[in-house]
Amino acid sequence: MSEGNDKPRAKIWVAVAIVAVVGVVVALLVLYGGGSSESGGGGGGGY
């Protein structure tokens, strides 16, 4: 029974992790890109 619960939880955690990472990256891009154009232009290609 635990195996059945692990799969959905794993997918949920993966989705949450992806959303969190994307949210942080977007937030950083917005902050650095909007705050200072120099930093935004330099660190635009992480992934």
Overall form: rod-shaped
Oligomer: single chain
Structural class: mainly alpha
Reading the helices and strands in chain order gives HH
Q: Helicity range of the residues? A: over 70%
Mean pLDDT: 74
Question: Can you put this structure into words, describing what you see?
Answer:
The chain is mainly α and 47 residues long. The model is unreliable at 37-43 (pLDDT under 50). The relative contact order is 0.10. The chain is 85% helix and 0% strand. The N and C termini lie far apart (38 Å). The protein has helices at 2-35, 37-42.
What is the element layout, followed by pairings?
Layout: H1 2-35, H2 37-42
Can I get a quick summary?
This protein is mostly helical and 47 residues long. It has helices at residues 2-35, 37-42.
